[in-house]
Amino acid sequence: MLELAPLADPFPRGIAHYLIGGLFIGLGVATIYLGTGIIAGASTFLESTLSYVSSVERFQRYRPSRDWRVVFTVGIVLGAGLYALVFAREVFVTDVQPWRLALGGVLIGIGTRVGKGCTSGHGVCGIGSLSGTSVANVATFMLIAIGTALFVGTMGVSP
Amino acid sequence: MSLDNRGTALVLVGGILFGFGLGYSRMAEPEIVLAFLQLTDFGLLFVMGGAVMVTATVFAIATRRGGRAPLTGELYAMRHKSFDNNVLFGGAIFGVGWGLSGICPGAAYASLGLGNYLILYGIGGMFLGAYVQGLARSYVGGTDAAADPS
Q1: Which residue ranges does UniProt annotate as crossing the membrane (chain B) (predicted)?
Q2: Interatomic CA distance for residues A115 and A155, integer angstroms
Q3: What residues in A contact B76, CB-CB < 8 Å?
């Protein structure tokens, strides 16, 4: 059921951890950038990693960057693990149904590659570069995602 | 671009900061992202806003000075991908996937770090989707410069 609760309290979980977490995300991108000049997005890892197991030319073009992209991704897992170790009280396992994760994942795998980036590549790095292309991409996926999530909720799919 | 050991080590540090931020902001929990997309918690705006504040500041200062990155010699530049219909088309497909699942690539990797083994359904799906589109575009033979590795 769609409710208008947000109008009453748009931030039921507060603001601080969202903002602080965001600053760390930006700091991670900035650290890599200042040292190497690389603007790292998270979704290219999918294509570049496929180059290890597929000879399709499309993936082979990522060979030069595939190693550090794996390292970047391992870092992301470790960093979140560090957070969980220090701040979370228990292991988190999502309640969102596997079919939603899997089907959503397939669409994400297609969409980020066709659209040239994701929430980090376009959303954080691209907007941070004041890129019109990225603003257009983010505005598109934001509106479509909100529409989709509201529709799914209205259809009674939960969690 | 290939990196030497120091560059790779720095990428690891950056990845850890990035993943820590995804954990701390709770973006690694699909439920929290879905709460934003269903308009019951607008906190995600602060995550993106906080991250962009840092990157926009650092990118602007670094590029203005026209210097080069110490570990690679790369000239500091912005991320400006070319615009075409794929940007909107791909964004729309991504939007449906994000809205359905509450996950995105970076947050999904981070979710593994929380012990969320069920996210492997999502990550597996992402690889499948990336593979299918790569295969399809190989056959179509598109030479879009836009998909150049960054």
Answers
A1: 7-24, 44-62, 87-108, 114-132
A2: 28
A3: 33, 37
